[in-house]
Amino acid sequence: MPSLRKLLAATAAALLVAVSAGTGATAAPAGPPPRPPAGPGPDTSLTTHTYAYADAPLGQPLKGIAPYLFPGDNLSTKFPGGLVWSYFALNEVMKNPANCADIDWSVFEKALDEAAVWSRQVAFRFYLEYPGGSGTHPGNGIPPCLNGKMALRTNGFWGTVSPDYDDPDVVSALVTFINAFAARYDKAGPGGSADPRIGYMSLGLVGLWGEWHTWPYDRDLADGYPDLMPTDATIRTLIGAYDTAFDNIQLEVRYPLAGTETANIGFHDDSWPYKEFREGGQLKSMTLPMSMNGWADAFLQLQLNTGTENRWITQSIGGEARPEIQGQLYANWPGGSGQVDDVLAATELTHITWMINQTGAGGYSPTDPKVAAGIRKLGYNLHIPQANFNATASGSLKVGVTVQNDGVAPFYYPWTVQLGLRNSAGTVVKTWDTPWDLRGVQPLKIRAFPDWNVGADPKYLDFGRPVNFSTTVSTAGVPAGSYSLVLKVRNPLEAVTADVLRARPAASRLTDWIIDQWRPRLPLSFANANQGADGWVDLGAVSTSGTCTGDCTAPSAPANLAVSGVTNTSVSLSWSAATDNVGVTGYRVFRDGVQVGTPTGTTYTDSGRTAGTTYQYTVRAVDAAGNVSNPSAAVSATTTGCSGDCTAPSAPTLSTTGKTDTSVSLSWTASTDNVGVTGYEVFRGGTLVGSPAGTTYTDSGLTASTAYSYTVKARDAAGNRSAASNTVSVTTNAPPQPPTGLVLDNYDGTPAYPSSNQNDLGKWTGGNCFLDGGGNGVVTGGALSLRYNNCGWFGSDVGVDLSSYTYLVVRIKGAAGGEQAHFNLGLGGSTKVFGDFTLDGGAHPVITTSYQDIKIPMVANGINRNSPSQLAMGFWYGGSSTITIDHITFQ
Fold first, then answer.
1. Which residues share a beta bridge with 48?
2. N vs C: which end of the chain shows fewer Cβ within 10 Å?
């Protein structure tokens, strides 16, 4: 097994061959893009209102960092943002063995709706090959309608099954999917716009993880592996199908391959902004071009080679912060350190709007100024420096608003800009949709590539301009009075309400528990001091003369709204009478913002409700002239009884299966339920510490020699909880003795793994492809846990003479036992499956669920102690488990 550095270098070299050959690369950058023409200036005959700049909120729609979408996850605990990321296997939607055109979108619909619950759009990719699967999606995504119709090849390195991508039936199925997806989602929104739940679509479908490569089975035939990539003709067919079928959804592809030269498709950097070691110990960028110390196959170098470096002007650029560096990505903002490249340069030159960053989404602090600055720099950053309108209106009002973009990319979707009037009570009483299109507001400055030869780096060029939008709105029918003129960009997710989600077909409907997490829609906020948290920007005061004659005074808002009673199917309300200059004639009762009753008195019973459901109510008063009061204060009421599944699961029986000085392992009997158990909740004392889906759990990070008590409850899809299990009390073990000999790493936090990239010898260490820690594995309780599913590599440089030491000692345990057959270990020129090493006396290592010191005699196993180089472990042997390493030493 090659080292990770060699593996990645070979991957990159093969990709350079494929991209260069596929596009007919000419090494000809497009150069500085022409500036957009200047539009009309503001109407200076109107009063000018100016506004101060202030940082926009960190959580913005369609930009920032995206965590993975896991069903049932609590996204309110993630870093603020408006996106999630998910993979989908093609055979999860193309399921009919007899018909590739029969597509069941249920799994995708559920994901879109679950993201919408949290006011997030989805960025996603469909695939045919995913080494080991994602954990929630299968590894083999080939649809059953292709069974027996094409050749299947094995990528022995990754253990995947690869279809013949050039087979006509395969191409036909993929084009069928592309067209069906576009027909369903590309024009599903208002006015034929994109489905409001979708953010960005990575083209996917081809290659490992849908990343359009099949390394090492690719076009670089010098390594002896056959080529499993499709031909350029097939690639052009697929790229062309996407480009033809889609008009609205922003599309992204990993590389500027054949067919992307003029396509309306953006790009996606899966190694952003990572610096990679290759042969000879050179460390160069995988994002920035060669002119900025990048490799020849770096993301931006390939765009410069194909003249596509300005694609961002109309098509989005996304990516994934390379998992190895996600935790420390912004630690040295605006620069970088170690394998983190110059983050500011990478942001400004890629014009990246969003990125997958699972570690950051769960670990970054919104109060960290470096993180905040880096996140705000992504994508658009819209500011309103001024507006033009007069302070009075009679019948109509002309409004001009100037918008500029201080970010690195435009806003890519035609969301509606609204104007409104807000009264003194804070209620927006009138709104108008404008024809304004924010997509034309380009960044004021762009950073030049050194390859453009326009000046020393960093060189910034004028590009976008402030855009002066203008419209005239009718104020007819608006009561005379004083208002604030306000502006808002409407998030189309506003149409995806909780009621809409509850009305979904059973096959794609979310559980009530998930729908109950529904959050208000995330507004697009401007970088303005006058930006409100509700999404409205206060532009200034306006008085309307109105057209009212006679009684023009609205009643007072009803006071003391209260819930006077509830049943399984009804809510009873009462309130104090409103007052009016002439007289109140009645009231309007609103449930969840929708009018449901018009009583004349001060009580109302809302019938026909659902048991066990929460509703929100407000009341307005009305007089004979039709004047309507402001709303009362809102009250919430929950009907009695239970809706749907009301039966709790049975209580589990709890026991302990093991313990260490820092952890306790638990297991319990499976609970039963009338519908089905969906998971369990583990409590340490009275504190919830875990929510596993299965019947085992390990509580980590505990204190040695300390007593803990545990209970477990079962949970079903409706949110019913069982009674608590029996209580189990466990005392953790005493702390272990510190390791002796030469310590390679004891994972005590100094140096920190993986953020420091150093072991206890001060040399490089890291991992890739593990299921936790952004691919590196995670350190908890002073031990390194490597969770793998037929994929994983760990390395730790030694680089010192070990002649005075006899044994390599690995203190290790496994989650299930028997993991010695799942990986190899290499050191000093000797590489063996871990279970094949020979111990003193002729035995071989056997990993159990408890820690043990496995002492491998180095000389007897052919390990060169004079030149040990790097200790490396590779997990490509079909296994799926977790090993935990307490320390690695030489004795």
1. 388
2. C
